[in-house]
Specification:
TPR-like_helical_dom_sf, mainly alpha, two-stranded antiparallel ribbon, two-stranded parallel sheet, repeat, 34 helices, TPR_rpt
Length: 694
């Protein structure tokens, strides 16, 4: 500095004569940019510096709009610098934690879960990881669950780099977030999903007030961000704002009113409704649980639960709301209470929580009179109870018990004069016979159910019966008839909007084409079904598709792909408690390993399958086929004694079934081949050990 020279002159003289290129970094530039009335001066200075040919600038600041009339190249995405991706976030967390962090399979999954909750915010990662130098990971996660952003700080003096809360408050101060704009911020912090499609829905959430919210200011502050046309908030910001500026009851009532109307306007078609609900489902759960707890809006909540009950993708949310409502409303009507409990029992069975579902049903049954004079309404409730019990036993392959429950359900539905429920129950009896390969009985029952549905003009029920009759034709090798019937049923279900049944038909067609060795068509149909099941959220359907694809790949001698499919299906079935299906996956893994020549793995798979099937003596078809293929394995290994045991056990089991004559014949043929092989082996042995032959 020289006398009478301004700082600006000295700076620009230097920049103009500087040798080489210069880089100037302005960090946290929102501080001067938003300070009192200094923006014009700061803007002029920045633009003047940018005109210097050898000077490059980097500016970091909170906000979406770049400072000054400068052609900036924006880093990150359109909404600014994004949070870290999961892998680098984990690397950073471990680096900040240092060698105090003990690595294990359990700790790896805990870190992944913890970083997901922090939404991989860099400052939150650094500040939380610092604690691991003093406390174990488990304690840190517990502190976060209890204290949230209070753990995201270090030292005694808070600053923008030492405290997440300080950093958030600083943004609020700089951008002057107050009044209704602050109120909007607190609403967004309350909603886990933020405000999806905010341009459309904000005005509906707060009628007449949308113009009092300054969304641009909140976006500029970086406290919220725009994603998929929705206003969202990162977890650390959400936790801090919600704690410091909790939402009021008036705004909760606005949200209740909005979501009640939202449900009324949902598409009737569940396949169309579920994607729309997906954007809001966590908000819905939060809002209605809060309203139940505070004693508000129980009527609309019951309506919401009934709609969610139709969407299998959100079963866990529905169960949570029902449980919360039953626990918190002491004045709920008897009819509503029973309806909700039946609904919850059905959902628990769908989730594979069979014991919980059974306990729920039994508690309803005990409150009703099963003996003597039963009213029509009570008979209908009892019918529904036995109907759910039948589903529980059916899902666990306890077919004898399932049939008993089914017949009881039919009796009560007939007494209550509920013709649809009675027809549906008859159809389910056919389903139980079908999965046991009792095709003659199943065919008779489905024909009876079809007539009942026709009588009450229920086209969906008629199509369901036709679908199953087509499946039976397929099992009887009447493939062309089966394809015609199931294709017709699939078109009908598509017209009715019953996407679940339509997907099941596609899967059946895939299996029929596989049996005809039309593998391209089989794959096409199965993949279409898989796509439909995924949209619906039907886990068993997804597993069934993997199982069918595994057999398609095996038929094409693509053993590695087949093993992947069967292994994946095995995991899916296990997760939903379908133990018989788990055993069937093991059986098919055993078959595939045998064909590959991996005999030890095949033996292990068959042994494990038979061990699981011991719990289900009614599964004669599955047990018999596992024994048959186990026999093939022993035959390949020339252990003829063990092969004979397996073939004989399989033959006797198929024979006791009564409808598996073809399988009995196959076992007899295998035993005949075994006799020939044993004779040939004996002759070979005599020849090899007779000195006269050498």
């Amino acid at each position: 500095m020289q006398e009478n020279q301004s700082k600006h002159k000295v700076l620009f003289d230097h920049l103009q004569v500087a040798y080489g290129e210069l880089l100037i970094v302005f960090d946290n530039f929102e501080t001067p940019w938003n300070h009192d009335d200094s923006r014009i001066g700061v803007k002029n200075l920045l633009e003047k510096i940018a005109k210097c040919g050898k000077v490059s600038l980097i500016v970091t600041m909170r906000g979406l709009n770049e400072p000054g009339d400068i052609p900036w190249e924006k880093l990150g995405d359109e909404f600014g610098i994004p949070t870290l991706a999961p892998v680098p976030a984990k690397e950073a967390f471990k680096a900040f934690a240092g060698n105090k962090l003990q690595s294990s399979d359990n700790s790896e999954s805990q870190i992944d879960s913890f970083l997901h909750q922090l939404e991989c915010v860099p400052l939150a990662i650094r500040l939380s990881a610092q604690h691991l130098k003093r406390i174990p990971l488990k304690a840190l996660i517990s502190m976060w669950e209890k204290d949230k952003t209070s753990i995201l700080a270090e030292g005694t003096v808070p600053g923008r780099l030492t405290s997440v809360s300080f950093s958030i408050d600083l943004s609020m101060q700089i951008f002057k977030i107050e009044g209704r704009t602050l109120n909007l911020l607190s609403v967004i912090s309350y909603l886990p999903d933020g405000i999806p499609f905010w341009v459309e829905y904000l005005s509906q959430m707060f009628p007449g007030e949308e113009f009092s919210f300054n969304v641009s200011t909140l976006l500029d502050s970086s406290l919220i961000y725009n994603q998929d046309e929705g206003l969202k908030m990162l977890a650390p910001v959400r936790e801090h704002v919600h704690l410091k500026y909790p939402i009021g009851q008036t705004d909760t009532d606005h949200l209740d009113t909005f979501y009640s109307g939202f449900f009324e306007n949902l598409p009737e078609d569940i396949m169309q409704a579920q994607p729309v609900l997906q954007y809001h489902i966590n908000n819905i759960e939060k809002v209605f649980k809060a309203q139940i707890s505070s004693g508000h809006s129980k009527t609309s909540c019951i309506s919401v639960i009934k709609t969610l009950n139709r969407c299998v993708q959100f079963v866990s949310v529905s169960v949570g709301l029902i449980t919360h409502l039953l626990q918190n409303d002491q004045n709920i009507g008897k009819k509503d209470e029973i309806d909700l409990k039946l609904m919850r029992a059905g959902q628990l069975r769908w989730m594979g929580r069979f014991q919980d579902a059974k306990i729920q049903v039994m508690s309803i049954k005990q409150s009703l009179n099963e003996e003597g004079n039963t009213s029509q309404s009570e008979a209908n409730i009892l019918g529904k109870c036995f109907d759910i019990l039948q589903d529980i036993y059916y899902a666990q392959a306890q077919y004898g018990k399932a049939i008993k429950m089914n017949l009881q359900a039919q009796k009560y539905f007939e007494q209550s004069e509920d013709q649809w429920a009675q027809a549906s129950s008859v159809s389910w009896l056919g389903e139980i016979y079908y999965v046991q390969a009792r095709y003659k009985e199943a065919s008779r029952i489905f024909s009876e159910a079809q007539q009942l549905f026709q009588k009450i003009e229920n086209d969906v029920g008629v199509a369901e019966c036709l679908q199953r009759l087509g499946d039976i034709y397929g099992m009887q090798n009447r493939n062309e008839e089966a394809i015609d019937i199931i294709s017709d049923a699939q078109r009908k279900f598509q017209t009715f909007g019953n996407q679940l049944r339509a997907a099941e038909c596609l899967l059946s067609l895939g299996e029929l084409y596989r049996m005809q060795e039309k593998y391209d068509e089989a794959s096409e149909m199965t993949l279409k079904a898989q796509k439909q099941f995924k949209k619906i959220g039907y886990k068993q359907g997804l597993a069934d598709c993997l199982w069918t694809l595994g057999r398609v790949y095996r038929n094409q001698v693509q053993y590695d792909k087949a093993i992947d499919m069967f292994s994946n299906a095995h995991r899916q079935y296990q997760s939903i408690g379908r133990i018989v299906n788990v055993a069937q996956c093991l059986e098919h893994l055993g078959i595939t390993y045998r064909l590959e020549g991996q005999y030890p793995k095949a033996k292990e798979a068959f042994t494990e399958a038979l061990e699981l099937l011991k719990r289900f003596p009614g599964e004669k078809y599955s047990i018999g086929y596992t024994l048959l293929h186990f026999g093939h394995l022993f035959f390949d290994c020339q252990d003829f004694a063990e092969a004979r045991k397996m073939y004989e056990k399989a033959r006797d089991l198929f024979d006791s079934h009564g409808e598996l004559e073809k399988e009995v014949d196959e076992c007899s043929e295998r035993l005949a081949k075994l006799d020939e092989a044993e004779v040939a082996a004996s002759i070979s042995y005599i020849y090899d050990n007779n000195p006269c032959t050498h």
